[in-house]
Amino acid sequence: MSPTWYDVLGVDRDATPDEVRSAWRRSIADLDPSDRRFRSANEAAEVLLDADRRRAYDASLPAGEEPVPVPEPVPVAATRADERSTTGEDPAGRSGRRLPVLLLAVVGVLAVATVVLAAVVWFRPHVDPDEVDTAQSAAEQAIVPVLSYDYRELEEDAEAARSYLTEDYQEEYTQLFTVISDNAPRTEAVVRAEVIASSVVRTSPDAVEVLLFVNRPTTNKQVTEPVVYRDQVTVTMVREGDEWRVDRLQTTPAPE
User: Fold this and answer.
1) Which of 76, 131, 132, 213 lies deepest, with the highest CB count within 10 Å?
2) Could you give the number of structural domains in the chain?
3) What secondary structure, in 3-state letters, does the chain show?
4) pLDDT digit string (tens) for 107-131?
5) Are residue 101 and residue 202 in the same domain, yes or no?
6) Residue where a domain terminates, one of 36, 60, 84
7) Domain limits at 15?
């Protein structure tokens, strides 16, 4: 039986959107974006945080299906120790020689010290935790005007978007928006971005990378009922003065 999206995030079938959102953030907190589990967690959240898609997904599940328990992996070291204790294998291994007890103790202490040091380096925040939260909130606020526009108010929309961008990224944004300005009046396009969820992906000494799920209801002169495009947007936030601003963003379609 294949795990459900609920299993992937470790939540119950009746989990609230806030519970799903929190579980998603926890799931990807320590994962690299290239990790398969990172992508699976994102796909799960995309479905479960969208009310319509979640209803359709729930309807596709067998009635009364329970989440599939995911067994905890057994540490390799523990497994080998158990095998030695049950088989009576000589701890000296194939060589038949035992290392001196004192040397083993020293090696053990050094190994523990190395792990602790690695953990300290790995988990040491590059940016103050309060600043990370501020950067995440700034990303959520910025992405709405940056990805939204109305063919009747293009100049105002562009100016509003630029106020959330770094000076360097304003130049790139202007080039991109030129394409929109050329086409939107002809098609009478209107795009309104909506943030569904966000999570901090990683931090560095001078930047915070935030992943956002964004819906973009879109209309034009041929489509009067909004068509909702769903995207995953990775935003790099950097400090300029007292404010966090968008320095780079990458948009990819969310998995269906």
Assistant:
1) 213
2) 3
3) CCCCHHHHHCCCCCCCHHHHHHHHHHHHCCCCCCCHHHHHHHHHHHHHCCHHHHHHHHHHCCCCCCCCCCCCCCCHHHHHHHHHHHHCCCCCHHHCCCCCHHHHHHHHHHHHHHHHHHHHHHHCCCCCHHHHHHHHHHHHHHHHHHHCEECCCHHHHHHHHHCCECHHHHHHHHHHHHHHHHHHHHHCCEECCEEEEEEEEEEECCEEEEEEEEEEEEECCCCCCCEEEEEEEEEEEEEECCEEEEEEEEEEECCC
4) 343 343 333 333 333 343 456 777 8
5) no
6) 60
7) 5-60
